[in-house]
Specification:
Layout: H1 2-25, E1 42-50, E2 58-68, H2 78-87, E3 110-118, E4 121-129, H3 132-138
Antiparallel strand pairs: 1-2, 1-3, 3-4
């Protein structure tokens, strides 16, 4: 029994010494993230889907769009799309205008989304249109969602 007490005492003393040494050494700190370039990142995923809400719509088409340092991604016209987003300061809602043509009132909702980063700021945007005609009429000359 005396041997067990001495062993436990030695183990406790060793553990205390180790913990004291770790505490005295301090806590390791990670360096803050540093930018890898001169510009904030701009990269997004754009989708067009069937449904009434972004969370429940079925995505039919999706592309990636990266604007900095150079336009790219799987978007068919990345330079034009980046230029349009730059003109509205990345505010996707400003891409829509009052519809320029009449559409049927058929309810077949189309939801468009943008998710990612625009000039270093998080983007999570969506809009729902009554049908594909309404979406096209609201963005008649916008290449951002022409894919």
């Amino acid at each position: 029994m005396r041997y067990t007490l001495n062993t436990r005492g030695a183990a406790a003393a060793t553990a205390a010494l180790v913990l004291t040494t770790v505490a005295a050494a301090g806590v390791a700190h990670a360096r803050p993230a540093q930018p890898t370039g001169l510009h904030a990142p701009s990269a997004m995923v754009l989708t067009v889907g069937k449904g009434e809400a972004a969370a429940t719509s079925t995505v039919e088409r999706a592309v990636t769009l990266s604007c900095i340092p150079t336009p790219g991604g799987s978007h068919p016209a990345p330079a034009a799309a980046c230029g349009e987003l730059d003109a509205v300061n990345g505010e996707f809602g400003r891409l829509s205008v009052k519809p320029t043509k009449a559409c049927t009132r058929q309810w077949d909702p189309v939801t468009v989304t943008a998710s990612g980063v625009w000039q270093g700021k998080r983007v999570d945007w969506s809009a729902t249109y009554g049908n594909a005609c309404e979406m096209q009429a609201s963005m008649p000359e916008v290449s951002v969602y022409t894919f």
